[in-house]
Amino acid sequence: MGRPIAWPCRFTVGPENLAFNHATETIQSKARELAANPKPLAHPVMVFSGYRVPGIFAGQLATNLARLTSGRMEDFRMFAYPWHGDIEPLVNRLATKIGREFGMDSSGDSTLAVDAVGISMGGIVGRLAAARARPRPAGIPRVDIRNLYTIATPHRGANLALKIHVDRAATDMQPNSPFLAKLDEYAKSDDYSLTPYATLNDITVGAANCSPPGSHPIWVRGTRRFAHTTVTMHPAIALDIALRLRGEPPLGAPSAIPAH
Questions:
Q1: Please, which pLDDT band fits residue 12 given cuts at 50, 70 and 90?
Q2: Which alpha helices (DSSP H) does the chain contain, by range?
Q3: Ranges of each domain in the chain
Q4: 29: exposed, middle or buried (C-beta count within 10 Å: 0-12, 13-18, 19+)?
Q5: Could you tell me which residues are beta bridge partners of residue 12?
Q6: Residue 70: CB partners within 8 Å, gap ≥ 6?
Q7: How far from chain centre, in Å, is Cα 39?
């Protein structure tokens, strides 16, 4: 899967986030500390890739998270789906695969417990897979996600989807879509922990769209161009997720997206 590529994140612009202690020296020293002290994880970790993206970014993130947590790549499983343009069937396929690979609970209705990281649309995939109230076809399990970390996920829709919507998935990710309204309705019955992250200058989704209604994300400054693409390379986000996976105090807290 390769080592993470962090150099683009040296060229971020925008106001500093006072609710996220991610000074360079803090990130570097803490990352060295975690890598030198591996810690077993409570659950396997699923990393869901973004919309029509090959697995390179999700793979790099999984590699980095493994290095900062247990030190074991076998604790992580990356899913990419560049040829799938419909979220519901995709979630059914992934749920079946996760159940087969990681086991089912005693009821046979849900998989064993996992944690998950969703990149962009991958966060929507995680929410739908974990939804208790979602009607599921016979034989399709609910994925028992205990902690879901989403990165630049269009919880309130993607700005770009208003301009380009060539398939069902893109249409479903438009702001105020019936699909997203249904997902928010499902969330009323869910009990997993959701931690959303966002980057400023994200013209694809929009930083303010990266948390469910009524909540704020943990945000970082973004690159002037391609902020959405480079967000998984940001070492502060990977470190904050790693700390949470380890059950240790994180560096970031949710706060309002600053007005531009």
A1: confident
A2: 24-36, 56-68, 87-102, 121-130, 168-172, 178-187, 227-230, 235-245
A3: 7-245
A4: exposed
A5: 223
A6: 38, 39, 40, 41
A7: 21
Q: From the centroid of its chain, how far is CA 71?
A: 20
The answer on pLDDT for 260 being more than 70 is no
**Token pair 């999700």: residue:** 58
Mean per-residue pLDDT of the chain: 93
| Count of beta carbons in the 10 Å neighbourhood of residue 64 | 26
By the 8 A CB rule, do 18 and 252 touch? no
pLDDT in tens, 122-157: 999 999 999 999 999 999 999 999 999 999 999 999
Could you give the 3-state DSSP secondary structure of residue 147?
A: strand
- For tokens 């046979």, the residue is 108
CB hemisphere CA count around 239 (13 angstroms): 24
Is residue 5 over pLDDT 90?
no
Cβ atoms of 128 and 82 closer than 8 Å: no
DSSP 197: E
Second-level CATH architecture of 7-245: 3-Layer(aba) Sandwich (3.40)
- Token code pair at residue 129: 């897979």
